[in-house]
Structures are given as structure tokens and as C-alpha cells.
Sequence to fold (103 residues):
Amino acid sequence: MNKIKITVKAISNHKKLSSQYENYIDMPCNLKIGDVFILDKLEKPNGLCESAWLSMYPYVMTLFYGGENMHEGWMKNKKSAMISCNDGFRPVSFYIEVIDDKI
Fold:
């Protein structure tokens, strides 16, 4: 099993879409660019919302158990993935990577 690092890389805000379709929610996500989560077990880290975790879980699980090269050459680092949460108004992009420490 591999240790996994999840880093917040980007946070978008589609205000026009929000104003058209969403009931106002003030900052539903408290993450900041540069936030890091280290996983040494396959559990949602504290501070990460359920929606983001569900979006990234298949990739985290694959990397955690030694899988790599997902989607045949998609990522420069074959032991990584770039995943966004499924909030269509304020998507957060996460870089998920294996770090050298084995568990």
C-alpha cells in the first residue's frame, strides 16, 4: 500500500452560473489553494467534504493499492491524478499523488 498526498491546486467560482441557478450558499468549502492531506489509510481526511472525496475516491484507491498509469498516459507522473470535485459552481481541483513512503 502507498501513502497518498492530496494537494488543492485550484479553486474556481462560476458566479454567473451561481446567480442563474443556485440558491445562495456562502463559502460551502473552506479549502485553500495549497492545502495538503496525507493519507496512510483509505479514509476521507478531516476537512475534506464528502462530495470531493466521492469524486476522487476511485483514483485514491487505485493509487493507494499500487495502481498506476490510469487512462493510459494521461498524467506525466503515472502515479498521480488531477481530479475536481463535482460542484459545478465552485469546483476545486486536487492533485493526487503517491509519495515514496510505503505503509
Summary: The longest strand covers residues 92-102. The mean pLDDT is 92. The beta strands are 2-11, 36-39, 80-84, 92-102.
